[in-house]
Amino acid sequence: MSQNAVFLGKRSRLADCETKGDDTHPFGCPILMDLVSGNTDQYLNKSITATIDVHIRKYAPIVTRQKSKWLRSVRTLEKGEKIELNGILQLVYAGDTFYWGTLEAICKNVSDMGSTMEITASPKLRSMFAVAAFIMLALWGWSLVPPIENWGNPNEDGFSYVPVFYTTIVCLPAGIYLLVGAIAGHGRYVRRARIAFFIAAGITLLVVAFLVVQQIADNNDGKVFGIQIGFQLDHQDGREM
């Protein structure tokens, strides 16, 4: 069975473990002390808690001639999350001793060539997907307001349906992909949601920029930074020209 790996700490940081940042011992000083002392069995098949965000890698580093090659990150273990180790490795490279924990692969069909991967979204990422989905679906719902208000209006020229058209082909699909990604949280749903997230971010920025420009124009007789936006009626002799 394939094994993923997570960095546990390095020997050189034992002396100043309490004063240095957690990036050199992402599961805390007590665990690093036990690893250096050789007391590793107590951490096998038991849960340990990350004290900072730390990457879970596809495999442990490959060491050749005191140099290490790190493989790509499978996902990020967030601060406070727990994992269960099934092995502990002691690797020597870069003039130091590094400790890595192995765990059951969180990927499906992982091969040495790294073909198909089962991506798992972190709680933070799923929350971001949910917020973006709400924004996209809210924009789509907002675009429905003008057509509903002008329903049956004989003077309606069809312009109010233009926002509905564009939000239906852009915002609605993006919102659905994001919502499914937030709920499912794994595999192809996350890959699609990530693409939709960037689309949603771009659309949100455009909408915010448009609203800001509109607000400035409304408060300055249709001018934005001295430039006339749209048309302005001239009043002469009490008559509109």
Report a brief summary of the structure.
The chain has 241 residues and is α+β, with helices and mostly antiparallel strands.
Essential attributes:
two-stranded antiparallel sheet, 6 helices, elongated, single chain, 5-stranded antiparallel β-sheet, 241 residues
Provide a descriptive summary of the structure in words:
About 35% of the residues lie in helices and about 20% in strands. The chain is of the alpha+beta class and about 240 residues long. It folds into two domains: about 5-105, no CATH class; about 125-230. The strands form five sheets. A five-stranded antiparallel sheet has the order 6-3-1-9-8. The protein has a two-stranded antiparallel sheet with strand order 2-7. The longest helix is centred in the last third of the chain and has 32 residues, at about 185-220. It is elongated, with a radius of gyration of 28 Å. Mean pLDDT is about 80; it is low at about 105-115 and about 235-240.
**Low-confidence stretches at least 5 residues in length (pLDDT < 50)?**
107-117, 235-241
Q: What is the ordering of alpha helices and beta strands?
A: EHEEEEEEEEHHHHHEEEE
**Rg calc:** 28 Å
Q: Mean pLDDT, nearest integer?
A: 81
Count helical runs: 6
- The secondary structure category is alpha+beta
Number of strands: 13
Share of helix among residues? 25-40%
The number of domains is 2
Share in β-strands:
15-25%
Distance between the termini: 81 Å
Q: State the assembly state of the protein chains.
A: single chain
Q: Which strand order does the major sheet show?
A: 6-3-1-9-8
Largest sheet: 5 strands, antiparallel
